[in-house]
Amino acid sequence: MKIAVGVATCGRKTILAAMIDRLARQERRPDHLFLCPAKADDIDMARLRSAPFPVTVVSSLQGSCPQRNAIIDAAAGMDVLVFFDDDFFPAANYLAETEALFETDEEIVVATGEVIRDGILGPGLTVDEADEALAADADPDPIPVIEAAHNAYGCNMIFRLRPIVANRIYFDEDLPLYAWQEDVDLCRRLRPYGKLVKFNRLRGVHLGVKAGRTSGLRLGYSQVANPLYLVKKRSVSLKWALKLMGGNIASNLVGSVKPPPYIDRRGRLQGNLLAVSHLLSGSLDPKHINRM
């Protein structure tokens, strides 16, 4: 089985280099690493020359979806493509467990793992904190549990490439820039072709680095516009979208009273309200964030 790792990156040269260092420690190394930077200086090219596996840098327009789509095209000859965020540190056996999982059940088209610590829920984790969390994992080799999943978590998504390439199912580039919920959209469109699963032996830490992320205003707009766009294209249910939107708007409303320094709750709430006003006027469009 040929396993590729793909990373779309933006403005995180140092953390990306640290992530590649951890990738080099995999018990089962990737057959190829595909990187797609938003800008040429997002990658330390000197660091790549010492990587113990082939590396290809591909180019595209800036945005999570076009960058990932460029990686899909470049990796089309592989069997499995693992998308890691540039701030996700996989456990050393992650790719070995990936290979075992996809060889055991050929009906699996999407898989995601267990995030044992997620810095996105707070101020973010340092490299040392992430390494310590992996080293301190209380259950690094759990009894295997494979459960059905609604979608993969964007920081660690594994795809069998055959159905993607054969049916030309790509990330939706009408979801611009950070492309919030693009992972859900792609996974749900792949559901007719096989199983979507979560596997507890695929483990890692998401640092949740704040650098390189979209503004609070833009994200707040996307928190309303993107779920409703996905409902319109029928990749998700209205019930799912309303629950997601309601939870985020409520969190932003409460958080705006005394916002933490690492989350722009007031900016997100402002974006939420702008999107609601566009919904009422009939002008709601995910691409509006390109003009903000």
UniProtKB/TrEMBL annotation:
<dbReference type="InterPro" id="IPR029044">
    <property type="entry name" value="Nucleotide-diphossugar_trans"/>
</dbReference>
<dbReference type="GO" id="GO:0016740">
    <property type="term" value="F:transferase activity"/>
</dbReference>
<protein>
    <submittedName>
        <fullName>Glucosyll transferase family 2</fullName>
    </submittedName>
</protein>
<keyword id="KW-0808">Transferase</keyword>
